[in-house]
UniProtKB/TrEMBL annotation:
Name of this chain's protein: O-linked N-acetylglucosaminetransferase
Region (Disordered) location: 641-690
One Pfam family it belongs to: HMw1_D2
Domain (HMW1): residue spans on this chain: 159-246
InterPro entries in the record: Glycosyltr_41/O-GlcNAc_trsf, HMW1_D2, HMW1C_N
The organism's place on the tree of life at top rank: Bacteria
The UniProt record lists the keyword Transferase: yes
Pathway: Protein modification; protein glycosylation
Stretches assigned to the HMW1C N-terminal domain: 11-151
Bias type Basic residues, positions: 641-655
UniProt KW keywords: Glycosyltransferase, Transferase
GO molecular function per UniProt: glycosyltransferase activity
């Protein structure tokens, strides 16, 4: 087959649809969707013809809308054909790519595919187009569920579909939670309803068979961007199904009755998601892992995208091996067995399938995560969460025990792309106050946009919002732009996903920033301060919203910039926009005091030390002598009297192989009390500075 024939083609798709060659049409459509997925929404690498007038670099948006409209037309013709029949495997593939079908329609004038759904409407009363009755034909139900998109205006009875076909209903729920932009009232409302209804149902499924499991991580991660207090409950149900799927596939947990040592140190195995010098996880979590090497032999496991700087964080780095999730997990398990890993640690979880599946296995006596993606795991196999003390809003948001470190225990690393110098832009009395918003598409929602609209309407000065958007490209961007315009009209500019230096230039031209909520910023705040800007944030109980408060206080910003409610957020943003002198004074304070340096300095040792403490506790609980481990001398911890056998290459103990029971200690250790006290002192200091 020639290279030209391998290229996904709208032309071939159109020919197959017109000829009613259903299998060829579906395969070509899936190839096109797969290419869009690989391009993160881009349409490059897809053969299609368009009017010559659109082959203009200044008309890329118009060309994208043309492409989307043409694809929507062809999908309409294909799925409106009642003779089209889909296999179970074909349906699963369509659900895996449904988010791109949704974006094709959302980017086009169609907005949604409700006109296709009407083909399967058996309701004799057509007066209400949003009231649809479905036949009992299984094939019709499959096609309906595939084409039921986030922007649909049709009310759907999930219980009725579950009763007819639980796996099909679950697949649709997976698909509706998978888009990276769920910001409109219609789409956000659907996901919110699913997050309330779905967990109980999902937990009933025996395994992941015939489900679009390739998008499981989207279900797991995207719930964080909802507003409900119980939004993470879907993780617990998904974990149960994943665990059953692994066990029925032959998975056996590692025997953790043996821990080993390398160069005299216990071994910590670290499973990575995204970790290279330009990535935020490297910026926030590399220093603490380097410091942990004082006590542990660190083995990193990751993909080929981990660059030299990322690999050098560890004593040893291994490229993960295997083509399937099961093979990759087996590789991680073999490594943990070979080295007798004492600690299994993931600095982030939620962005990759491997880490989520790994969180449902036992690979080491002590298993912990950090909050590279801030949210609980709801996993019975994860004992601990590593987090800076001032980032915690409410411990009730976590199923794990928190290892609360001093606020400077995870000092950040400047971005490899950060500018060497900045020429600050301080406008004394601007006619229009430019307000920057650094946000990925996932953080946008109708509540946040309503707050921005209120800021615009109440401010006595003219404001203009500049959205410096991450992940908004290709067929995604026209949809996101329309959403923003629907709330803010000409008072906003939606900038598509840009290289870092262009993104920074957008923010550089702004007078102030406002942070999205409920999912706030970490690196966006660092970028803000790099440019000598100040802004408003909204805090809350979840770490992903409380981080903003913690960072603002570390930077010495006044507490009135931290809002507890949406009303406060609007009121304080208006104040910052209207009062030019006050805003400029705050900016000069940040610039003159080099507030940014606060985030890049600190003591990264506590994470390693607290892991030593927890390993000593585990060894003591199981009467294991670890006195000849290198960390025992540096930690100063005592070994229990009953542990008299010197540790050899491996240390044996009888332990249950299933999920390790979680710690139920009610009293705080002296170290923990000291950390809590220091956090309070820091908060007081911050108030004085403000």
């Amino acid at each position: 087959m020639s290279q030209e024939q391998k290229t996904p083609s709208v032309i071939r798709f159109e020919q197959a649809v017109k000829a009613k060659q259903y299998e060829s049409a579906c395969n070509e459509l899936l190839d096109i969707l797969s290419q869009i997925d690989s391009n993160f929404g881009g349409i490059n690498g897809i053969e299609f013809n368009c009017p010559e007038q659109l082959n203009n670099p200044n008309l890329s948006k118009e060309k994208t809308i043309y492409f989307s409209t043409r694809m929507a037309d062809l999908i309409t013709e294909l799925f409106s054909d009642e003779s089209l029949s889909l296999t179970v495997g074909g349906a699963v593939r369509f659900f895996s790519y449904q988010r791109w079908i949704a974006l094709l329609f959302a980017c086009s004038p169609y907005i949604n595919s409700d006109h296709i759904l009407q083909v399967y409407n058996r309701n004799p009363d057509k007066s209400n187009p949003n009231s649809v009755h479905l036949s009992a034909n299984p094939n019709d139900l499959v096609k309906f569920c595939i084409m039921y998109l986030p922007e649909s205006n049709i009310s759907l009875n999930l219980d009725a579909i579950w009763q007819l076909n639980p796996t099909l209903c679950a697949s649709m729920c997976f698909a509706l939670q998978s888009p990276r932009f769920i910001g409109t009232k219609e789409a956000f409302g659907k996901r919110g309803a699913i997050l309330q209804w779905f967990p109980e149902k999902l937990a009933q499924l025996p395994n992941l068979d015939n489900l679009p499991s390739s998008i499981s991580h989207d279900v797991y991660m995207h719930c964080s961007y909802d507003v409900a207090a119980n939004k993470h409950d879907v993780k617990r149900a998904l974990n149960q199904v994943m665990r059953r799927h692994l066990v029925t596939s032959g998975w056996v947990d590692r025997d953790i009755s043996k821990i080993g040592k390398t160069n005299g140190k216990p071994v910590m195995v670290v499973l990575l998601e995204h970790f290279h010098s330009a990535h935020s996880i490297y910026r926030t979590h590399s220093t603490s892992m380097r410091a942990a090497r004082e006590h542990f032999h660190l083995i990193g496991i990751g993909g080929s995208a981990v660059d030299k700087a990322g690999q050098e964080v560890f004593d040893d780095f291994r490229l993960v091996e295997g083509n399937t999730i099961f093979e990759k997990l087996s590789f991680v398990k073999r490594l943990c067995e070979e080295y007798g890993a004492a600690i299994f640690y993931m600095p982030s979880i939620g962005m990759d399938l491997t880490t989520i599946f790994a969180s449902n296995t036992r690979l080491a006596p002590i298993q912990a995560i950090a909050l590279g993606h801030p949210g609980t795991t709801h996993s019975e196999f994860i004992e601990y969460v590593v987090v800076e003390d001032d980032y915690v809003g409410s411990e009730a948001c976590f199923s794990e025990k928190l290892l609360r470190l001093p606020k400077d225990a995870l000092p950040y690393v400047p971005s490899a792309l950060a500018p060497a110098s900045v020429e600050y832009r301080l406008r004394e009395n601007p006619e229009v106050v430019n307000i920057g918003i650094a946000s990925t598409t996932m953080k946008l929602n109708p509540y946040f946009l309503d707050a921005l609209k209120a800021i615009r309407d109440r401010a006595k000065v003219k404001v203009h919002f500049h959205f410096a958007l991450g992940q908004s490209s290709g067929i995604t961007h026209p949809y996101v732009e329309r959403f923003i315009k629907s709330h803010l009209g000409d008072s906003a500019t939606a900038h598509p996903h840009s290289p870092y230096h262009q993104y920074m230039q957008i923010l550089h031209n702004c007078d102030m920033l406002v942070n999205p909520f409920p999912f706030g910023n970490t690196n966006g705040i660092i970028d803000m301060v790099t440019l000598g800007l100040v802004g408003i944030c909204k805090t809350g109980p979840e770490v992903h919203e409380h981080i903003d408060e913690g960072l603002f206080k570390r930077l010495g910003l006044p507490e009135w910039l931290i809002a507890n409610t949406v009303d406060e957020y609007v009121e304080r943003a208006v104040r910052l926009a209207e009062n030019h002198a006050e805003r400029l004074a705050l900016r000069r304070h940040i610039i003159e005091n080099n507030g940014l340096q606060t985030l890049f300095t600190g003591d990264p040792k506590p994470m390693g030390q607290v892991f030593v403490q927890k390993l000593n506790e585990w060894a003591g609980l199981h009467n294991i002598d670890v006195s000849d481990f290198a960390f025992a001398q540096s930690s100063g911890k005592k070994v229990t009297k009953s542990a008299k056998t010197a540790a050899k290459k491996t240390v044996k103990v009888t332990v249950k192989k299933s999920a390790q029971p979680k710690e139920s200690t009610k009293t705080k250790s002296k170290t923990e009390k000291k950390k809590t006290s220091s956090a309070k002192d820091a908060a007081k200091t911050s108030k004085k500075k403000a």
